[in-house]
Amino acid sequence: MNKAAENLTGRKLKNVLGMKINEIYDIRDDTTKDKMPSHFEKVLQKGEQINDRDHKLLISKNGNELLIEYSAAPVRDKRGNVTGMILVFRDSTEKIERLKQVEYLSLHDHMTGLYNRRYMHDSIKRLDTRRNLPFSMIYMDLNGLKLINDSLGHEMGDRLIVSVANVLRDMLRSDDIVGRLGGDEFLILLPRTDNEGAEKISERILKAISETKAGSLVPSVAVGSAVKTEEDQNIYDVLKRAESSMYRNKLKSGKMMRNTIVENLIRLTESKHAAVQDHSKRVMGFCERIANAMDLSDRETADLKTTALLHNIGEIVIPASLLNKPDKLTEEEYEQIKMHSEKGYQILKSIDEYAALAESVLQHHERWDGKGYPEGLKEGDILLHSRIINVADAYEAMTSDRPYKRAISREEAIEELKKCRGKQFDPDIVDIFIDKVLLKKESPADTAIC
After folding, report:
1. N or C: which end of the chain has fewer CB within 10 A?
2. Paired sense of beta strands 50-59 and 135-142, if any
């Protein structure tokens, strides 16, 4: 018995002389903690060797518990008679912890800590029994995740996912099982829960999620449920019905949800850029007046106004320190600023309601002479709405204070537009803007009567 054995057992060698070996080494089942039958006698009496890789509990004299693996081998004399035994204990705590971690990761989603797809599908099979009827499922989808990832980055998207997971974990009952199937999808299994119960839980989930926040954003989810009531119903058909119900609800609320996200993005963009509060709204106002002067249709005018409102939405990815920098930008910083056109295009292209406007946002910094960005288009190759926004945007920027410059007068801005006419700007749009918008004399009909 060496020093390590003394430490593990809490006994000194001098105090164990004469004791039975199973009294010295108190080995128990690690789950039940029942005392294990001693196998050491087999070594001493029969000369058998033991190599037990299944971890057990070694209980010390002081009651301390240690997870171990052990092996025992006989010691023989020259004649082959067993005269003793070599007993080796190995502390398996770290090994078991690693195994538990591997097992945990194999069953749980690494981001949220909820159960993963594999565990959820195993649970569906395990719970699909008569005693769990009625067996309900709630299928959930996080709205607008791709849009958030594209606009605010995957870190914000991950924060939304985790915030929803935390709500689900905190509010469900002990018998309920919740997991993340992957991406933006979640599943809740509700044994012994009827349709009414599932709908009440869905309502509580929607309310709780609407009251939580991830940064400045409130998550939004689509929810659908289905219930198995008869033993002969296929459980995976029930899962499909829950998913289909979720998608129907997603279609109903999807447009409103996406509009809300876009409004939040506009608000967040302008809050980052201290000097341009309501810039996009003013540009939209100028664009509407140009459209009226050009006799554009109501539909074209409406699309132009929406595009003007969204033209800088890509600035959501630009650091506020660059947008508000009072000094001249470096070449590298300017290249970063220029990314906003492409980023705005990507954001709008991912939203059905705004996809048709994405190209105009992409091109709103193209120049008439082909020296703009991002594609270097020129003249009529640039979309009409982009050419209109280019003029309105430049005029609004010139006549408003910026961190790097003071506003100039209307007259000075008009002279600048004329100077850049046919170079930066479409000459016809410049003429219309100056003559029919900026210098237009108010008629009696245009003057409000108080």
Report:
1. C
2. unpaired
Would you call the peptide bond into 219 cis, given omega within 30 degrees of 0 as the criterion? no
CATH topology of domain 108-254: Alpha-Beta Plaits (3.30.70)
pLDDT at position 50: 84
Q: What is the DSSP string of 290-303?
A: HHHHTT--HHHHHH
Whole-angstrom distance between the N-terminal and C-terminal Cα of the chain?
106
| In the chain, % of residues over pLDDT 70 | 96
Q: What is the dihedral of CA 95, 98, 104, 110, to 10 degrees?
A: 180
HSE, side-chain direction, 13 A CA sphere, residue 11: 19
Task: Give the tokens for residue 143.
Answer: 């709205």
How many Å separate Cα 55 from the centre of its chain? Answer: 39
Q: What is the average pLDDT score of the chain? A: 89
Rg (CA), the chain: 36
The listed CATH number (3.30.190.30, 3.20.20.150, 3.40.640.10, 1.10.3210.10) that belongs to domain 273-446: 1.10.3210.10
